[in-house]
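Handout, section B. The chain below has 84 residues.
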Amino acid sequence: MASAAHDPVCRVYHQPLWGRTDPELRRCLAGAGVVGLLTLLVILLAPARAPDPVTIEQVPERLARLILEKPQSAAAPARPLPRA
């Protein structure tokens, strides 16, 4: 059995998977849980802001032209002639 000097992690820091935990750790976890639940409640209960409608004047000209103009039919690319 390894001594405490050779143990990479001191036995004081080992916590059992099931069983008693450090009271300070329990308080920290409980506090973090409460803060997390309150944050979740605030996010869920806060009224959602309706998005402002976007007008044509607010859209950049290049994008507005792309949206409003009808697409031009593109000619098929020229195929190179096979070598004889």
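Note. The chain has a mean pLDDT of 80. Compare this with the example in section A.
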